[in-house]
Specification:
Length: about 500
């Protein structure tokens, strides 16, 4: 698990640690970590136009230095690189400059120029192999002001490798919100702990590869606000078969999906549940959907139902909603599953129904809701673009107001439950934005709920494996020379189902 803490907690931990540390020690640790990552990039040839092995000596490094301690970190790191033979130029932005950092840079042979000298700044940025973005860190508030915004734009257009100091300037540390211009980094070197805004889009999309430098804050940080699960966590959360398991002990999800008109969603949801490891899947729907599911998944136990599920048989979790329709019939079925004391996942059409019948969610057993931004906006009475821009805020609000575990799908999937840190899913690919992909996810999570996972563990494990299956399906066999991202091809929801077993296998290595 990777842990992220909000700015208030970072500041409090910093105060506690500083009281026990020599003056300037934290900034020296931060700058040393930052300089070491930059030196590694210059040595490996990843930075700008420098060829492999050419290293720090003779490289051209530009520091964008704002007026706070973020600028200070960049200036001290620049001084360390200058001592190793880099040509370092600091572009000074903002009302003041970190005096100690600037003095260190100058005595190491670095030079500085003012951001008010646009020609000089642009020339330096254009010639750079590597740019350190030290404009703003955790002290940044709101959209970038000038000259920061213009400098961020020049940096983002340059061919140099961009390394953000602590976080890309223009990204809100606590939320990942970007209002206006922001630096797009290749690498972000963050200090003491991850910041939530580095995990969540749009911030995550600006951060590139994130490296954590330990500056000793750990013991003073307290509980994280946001976490990023890793494969080992998911391996613990996804219930697997035990030696004594039989098909009933492994969990029996009931899937209530599809209708006379919509059939594909049901096929995908049942497929997700089967490949998710359910011992047996019961499926209940209108006749046409039942026929199709039986044809595609003969292993599912199906029942034709109208407005009651009384004949379906024993299940230990429900998945309700994909392709179900939104009329009275769907409402009756949803009311029945939500009236049980079993865990229930509500997705797709089911979410439209509960948006007008919130009372159905007043229950004691676990409820998982899996909306995309538009569906969540409807549940909260707001607009989809508001949800997209401030994902953490909206998913937390939904969990609080609806009393459920809420998984908000999208460019970064985020999962909230009251009293717990938000879990951000690290897997996935834009190729997953394809019809039926969400239905697969609902079945997968349903399998984990029926296997006994808690609501948040089931949701986080489902999102992780679904995202990984999507990546594996899109990038194909690993033998190719090109990195997986470059190999990606369009996929269908069915391809995702097919790749779920391979995704499971990566967990246990
Ligand atoms: N907190 C910690 O534990 C540590 C912090 N360090 C560094 O210190 C940074 C925080 O330093 P500061 O608190 O000085 O804050 P920052 O350096 O992040 O920024 C504060 C300055 O930016 C200006 N500013 C704020 N919003 C702006 C906007 N939208 N446009 C233009 N200017 C804006 C402010 O007026 C202020 O001068 C961290 O991000 C990190 O880089 C490290 O040195 C090590 C330890
Ligand atoms: K920065």
């Amino acid at each position: 698990m990777r842990y992220a803490h909000e700015v208030d907690k970072v500041r409090a931990a910093e105060r506690a640690l500083m009281a026990r540390s020599p003056e300037g020690a934290l900034m020296r640790r931060a700058a040393a970590g930052l300089a070491s990552v930059c030196a590694g990039l210059l040595r490996s040839g990843r930075a700008g136009v420098i060829g492999p092995g050419e290293g720090v000596y003779g490289s051209r490094v530009v520091l964008l230095a704002g007026s706070g301690d973020n600028g200070g970190d960049a200036l001290y790191a620049g001084a360390l690189l200058a001592r190793r033979g880099a040509h370092v130029t600091a572009v000074l932005a903002g009302s003041k400059t970190h005096e100690g950092g600037l003095a260190a840079l100058r005595s190491a042979g670095g030079r500085s120029l003012d951001a008010d000298d646009p020609a000089g700044s642009v020339a330096a940025i254009e010639a750079a192999d590597l740019i350190i973005d030290g404009l703003l860190g955790i002290g940044g508030r709101g959209g970038l002001r000038e000259p920061h915004a213009t400098l961020a734009g020049h940096a983002s257009r340059s061919v140099a490798t961009i390394v953000a100091c602590d976080l890309p300037s223009g990204v809100d540390a606590d939320t990942g919100v970007v209002s206006g211009a922001a630096v797009r980094a290749d690498v972000t070197v963050t200090f003491g702990t991850y910041k939530p805004g580095l995990f969540v889009d749009p911030g995550a999309g600006h951060a590139g590869v994130v490296e954590l430098v330990d500056i000793g804050l750990g013991p003073y940080l307290g509980d994280p606000d946001v976490v990023l699960p890793q494969a080992a966590d998911v391996d613990l959360w996804a219930p697997g078969p035990s030696r004594e398991s039989n098909k009933y002990r492994r969990g029996v999800p009931g899937v209530v999906a599809g209708s006379k008109t919509f059939t594909g969603a049901a096929v995908m949801s049942v497929g997700g549940a089967i490949r998710g490891g359910a011992g047996m899947v019961r499926f209940a729907s209108a006749e046409h959907s039942v026929e199709l599911v039986r044809h595609r998944w003969p292993e599912a136990v199906t029942s034709v139902v109208d407005t009651s599920l009384s004949e379906v048989g024993r299940v230990n979790a429900w998945v309700a909603g994909p392709g179900l329709g939104t009329g009275e019939h769907a409402e009756a079925l949803l009311a029945e599953v939500l009236g049980t004391d079993l865990p229930v996942l509500v997705d797709a059409d089911g979410l439209t129904v509960v948006a007008r019948r919130r009372d159905l969610l007043w229950r004691d057993a676990p409820t998982v809701l899996t909306p995309h931004a538009g569906e969540l906006a409807r549940l909260l009475g707001t607009e989809a673009d508001q949800v997209e821009a401030r994902r953490l805020e909206h998913v937390r609000r939904a969990a609080e107001e609806l009393g459920a575990t809420v998984l908000l799908k999208g460019s970064t999937t985020v999962i909230a439950e009251v009293g717990r840190p938000v879990r951000v899913n690290p897997t996935g690919t834009p190729r997953l934005a394809t019809a039926g992909s969400g239905d697969v996810l609902s079945g997968l999570i349903g399998a984990f709920l029926s296997g006994g996972a808690s609501a948040i563990d089931a949701a986080a494990a489902g999102a992780y494996l679904h995202g990984l299956a999507g990546r594996l399906a899109a990038s194909g066999p690993a033998s190719d020379e090109r990195p997986p991202d470059d190999r990606e091809a369009p996929i269908s929801a069915y391809d995702v189902i097919e790749a779920i077993p391979a995704a499971f296998r990566t967990l246990t290595g």
